[in-house]
Amino acid sequence: MTTFEKSPYHTPAKVVGLAALAGTILPPVAFLFGTMPLDTVKGIMLVSTILWFVAAPLWMKVD
Amino acid sequence: MTTQDHEHAGQGMVDEVESPAVGSEYERERVPERALKGPSSFWGMYAGEHTAGTEFMIGPLFVKWGADAFSLIVGLLIGNLLAVLTWRYLTAPIACSERLTLYYKMEKIAGRGLVTVYNLANGLLFCFLAGSMITVSATAVGPFFPEGTIAMPTFSSTMPTGPAWIAACIVIGAAMTFVALKGYDVVALVGHYSAPWMFLIFLACAIVTLGKLGTTDVWALLTPPPGTERSISFVGIVLFAWFCNAAMHIGMADLSVLRFAKSPSAGWASAAGMFLGHYVAWICAALLLIYWVKEKGVNPQEGKDPGTMVNDAVGWAGLVCIIIAGWTTANPTIYRAGLAFQGVLPGLSRTGATLLAGAVCIAAGIFPAFAMRLLDFVGVYGTILAPVGGLIVVDHFLADVVGIDRDPAAKSGASVNMAVLIAWLVPVLIGLSMTAVSPVNPWGFEVPPWYLPLPCTMACGILYILLSKFASGRAAAAA
Question: Which domains does chain B have, with CATH numbers?
Answer without folding.
Answer: 33-386 (1.10.4160.10)
